[in-house]
Q: What sequence folds into this?
């Protein structure tokens, strides 16, 4: 189960700025705190793939880090399956923007991190190779992360996250820094994987197309301080194609306009 | 006209002779200086005299005995320093609160030369191995603590998030994250400190003990045997060379070289 309830979540940081940026925005300045996230309410269903969009620095990553338990909210509540989040846990695995693989461990050892509870060595090895095969890294078990390409590193990290069998996977810009083709392939893999395992996936991205192709739902954060400015469920069938679905294409133009781009190519 | 293209990693023929060439040049210059300096061979012995007397010292076992005595002290002092300094460094690196308490003390004690401790060491530990070992320990302990602390501090914070995410226990954080992450830096620090402790042992042996290469040098000076003094110096250099070589091998171990491996 991976149901997430976010109620009245606020996040503020200490303001390092001496002078107010502007006087006419009372919300931005509460004493000497800067409000990053303001009054976020979200209900995420079990098995939903939610894509978070928003301009750089709007607090998308902060929101995900709060859900993951790396940071505490200043106000409000985050609950997973009805229980408040008290810190990081193997139930909700965070896949990092830059590689979070341990560079001193081989691919197999990294993937094995989530399977430490299996005491039987053979059992563990079988599971490890199962997940390595799932991301098509067989043959690279004994390689160290830096001997792999960027795309392979992401896949290894994906395998490691999947191996824990988490309720929720949280991905912070999982495709950033990948070349175009690898990006497309990884996107497809994540979509297929989601269809296969039906886990709740939260995914932060800058890429509107990624969100439209992948998401069951798109949440756009924006404004100052950051609020949810759009929350839309996408019930287009997959595989999705902008050219064949005029409705999707229309939504795409709308989103681009919303993010400040007049002509989407 | 022929040009030869060498593949990467392929060594030039006779490349292994290069280091020996350096030593040969040194011997040659030494010999010329000794011959034309006008000093007697008691004051400035040439290489031939020194090598012959080294043969004598080797034959009666003196040189080996003194070298072993020095190596013993270095080994004990160095291992003690590593066994205590690295854990202290890890603890300081992980507990940011205690660091501000202890770090100033360490930075205060660090610049005090181990040699300044000699009077105290002799008073506390008497004559023999203990004061020398204590001095070697001091010389390696502080550098090891400081480099280990810095190494722990430099670990990418993402890795600690990953550890928390995968429910690492406190022990697992240390054994599976902190220790492997700092091994490359710690090996470099060990390489530096083993040289320092080898420097210190000679100085320590000139004062508190009746054996070791430092004692050999001092004793030979009292007997006005400059050739023996030089034999002692050569032995020190050779052992230093060997220690550095061994430490370099340590740096090439798989666990220490994950940082170097790039595709």
A:
């Amino acid at each position: 189960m991976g149901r997430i309830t976010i109620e009245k979540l606020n996040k503020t940081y200490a303001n390092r700025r001496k002078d107010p940026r502007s006087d006419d925005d009372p919300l931005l300045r509460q004493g000497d705190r800067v409000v990053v996230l303001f009054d976020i309410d979200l209900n995420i269903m079990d098995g939903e793939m939610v894509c978070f969009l928003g301009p750089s620095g709007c607090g998308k990553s902060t929101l995900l880090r709060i859900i993951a338990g790396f940071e505490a909210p200043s106000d409000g509540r985050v609950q997973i399956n009805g229980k408040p989040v008290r810190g990081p846990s193997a139930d909700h695995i965070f896949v990092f923007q830059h590689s979070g693989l341990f560079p001193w461990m081989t691919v197999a050892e990294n993937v094995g991190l989530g399977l430490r509870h299996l005491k039987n060595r053979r059992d563990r090895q079988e599971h490890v190779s199962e997940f390595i095969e799932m991301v098509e890294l067989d043959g690279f078990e004994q390689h160290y992360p830096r001997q792999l390409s960027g795309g392979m590193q992401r896949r290894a990290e994906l395998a490691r996250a999947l191996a824990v069998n988490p309720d929720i996977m949280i991905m912070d810009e999982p495709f950033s820094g990948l070349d175009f083709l690898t990006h497309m392939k990884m996107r497809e893999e994540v979509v297929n994987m989601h269809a296969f395992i039906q886990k709740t996936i939260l995914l932060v991205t800058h890429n509107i197309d990624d969100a439209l192709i992948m998401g069951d739902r798109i949440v756009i954060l924006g404004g100052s301080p950051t609020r949810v400015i759009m929350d839309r469920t996408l019930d287009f069938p997959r595989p999705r194609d902008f050219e064949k679905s005029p409705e999707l294409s229309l939504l795409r133009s709308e989103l681009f306009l919303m993010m400040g781009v007049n002509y989407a190519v | 006209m022929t040009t030869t293209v060498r593949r990467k990693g392929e060594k030039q023929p006779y490349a292994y002779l290069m280091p020996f060439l350096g030593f040969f040049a040194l011997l040659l210059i030494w010999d010329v200086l000794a011959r034309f300096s006008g000093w007697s061979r008691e004051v400035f012995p040439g290489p031939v005299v020194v090598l012959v007397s080294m043969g004598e010292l080797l034959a009666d076992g003196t040189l080996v005995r003194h070298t072993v005595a020095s190596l013993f002290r270095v080994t004990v002092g160095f291992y003690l320093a590593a066994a205590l300094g690295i854990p202290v460094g890890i603890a300081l690196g992980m507990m940011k609160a205690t660091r501000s308490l202890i770090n100033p003390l360490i930075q205060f004690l660090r610049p005090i030369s181990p040699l300044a401790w000699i009077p105290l060491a002799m008073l506390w530990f008497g004559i023999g191995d203990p004061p020398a070992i204590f001095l070697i320990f001091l010389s390696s302990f502080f550098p090891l603590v400081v480099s280990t602390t810095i190494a722990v501090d430099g670990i990418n914070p993402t890795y600690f998030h990953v550890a928390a995410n995968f429910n690492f226990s406190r022990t697992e954080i240390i054994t599976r994250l902190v220790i492997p992450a700092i091994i490359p830096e710690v090996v470099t620090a060990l390489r530096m400190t083993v040289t320092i402790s080898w420097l210190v042992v000679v100085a320590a042996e000139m004062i508190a003990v009746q054996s070791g290469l430092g004692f050999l040098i001092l004793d030979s000076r009292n007997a006005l045997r400059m050739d023996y003094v030089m034999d002692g110096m050569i032995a020190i250099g050779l052992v230093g060379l060997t220690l550095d070589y061994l430490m370099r091998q340590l740096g090439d171990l798989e666990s220490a070289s994950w940082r170097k491996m790039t595709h």
